[in-house]
Fold each of these.
Amino acid sequence: MTLIGIVPSGIEGKTLSVNQDYVDAVLRAGGTPVIFPATEDPARLSALLDQVRGLLLTGGGDVDPVRYGEALLPCCGEISAIRDGMEYPLCREALSRRMPILAICRGIQLLSCVLGGTLYQDLDEQFGKTLKHPQYDRPGDPVHEVDVKPDTLLSSIVGAGSLGVNSRHHQGIRDLGEGLRVNALSPDGLIEGVELPASPFVLGVQWHPETLSPRFPAQQKIFHAFVKACEM
Ligand code: MN
């Protein structure tokens, strides 16, 4: 069994939750999901990583801008200090182990920030292009396209060129984290996918393939490729 660690997508009050779509997509790919408890203790996080073969960073609230050296602006959304405190050390440790990582939505933003990148705290306020990225009312529909760059890890999975994606984000990567390479852009020029060429499988996507994957086989392929990388 290939165990895949999943960080909870919701930590609120006394409830820890994860969107079932992540779990189902990993199960369909043949992996066995393990939902991690919320802890900021590096020793415990390290012990958790000892038990799994890959790490799935999920979507959710905003990274605290103080993490990338900025003041919190009114346009920033709800931040989750608990998730930041857990995921920064977890992501760092997984990177240093060269463990496969699939980073989705908040996950791609966190991955880039951990590697020294920055975010647009709100795309409408700070990026301001014509494309509407926060489309929360259509969670499972492709609402814009991305251009997948050839000769990338992502293109080896879903093919190069146009790919329809959902879009449930009001933030995005501004300055790219160190060592990352862009593998997908939306038509307005926003970074929608990254990968880390120095590692065997570190892939980030700004959209939510777990919600599209039951209907769109190319999106499920992302989870198959991730679990396959974890099996190696
Ligand atoms: Mn988008």
Amino acid sequence: MQVLFLGAPGSGKGTQCKKLSAKLDLAHLSSGDLLRAAIRENTPVGMKAKSFMDQGVLVPDPVLIEMFREALSMPALKKGFILDGFPRNLSQAESLDKLLEELDMKLNAVIDMEIDFAMLEERLVGRRSCPNKVCANVFHVKFAPPKVEDTCDFCGTQLIHRSDDKVEVVSSRLETYKKETEPLIGFYKAKGVLKTLNADDTPEHIFQEILKVLQVAV
Ligand code: AMP
């Protein structure tokens, strides 16, 4: 199964993608995670991406398209994949179409996590992330605090406040989403694959809705 998630930063799509990937044994391809790993490892992609990410704007399309051309060509994707954070504008979406055609694949569903924009700033600024890449769980100082302050419940690593979750960068990320990414909702609606879900709900309930939409036995 090939699924794509759309949703503003802070809509909770990363959390849902992680759960779905574990449940259905699908590869979770998160553009943000791939870029952050490239930055940590100081690769040429990481060096190109860093300044854009620090400002909360999109990294240039060719970097992402190349990164996903490589990721989608991996034999480990035979069971399918979940795309999280790519595409993020129309030109990337068109490139993805071509890429999938070349690889003889198609998207079974595009899930749009719909949420009131007014909630997102608080969700993002309060977010704390586990930097351990095999864990990568996300908490919130108010809505989902860890049991021990600033410590991951699952692996004990010290949580971080991502530099682009700081208040100065969050508004730019949200503006970028509105301008660049929101038009993808219409793009995928026109293709007949769009499923819209209310993302202002508990993570458990949203997950059940996703499974229903994908018609997977719970
Ligand atoms: P995320 O973790 O998905 O919120 O992504 C963090 C940052 O990575 C974004 O604010 C962008 O700077 C960059 N980024 C992630 N995905 C893309 C993409 N598809 N195109 C361009 N930049 C991206």
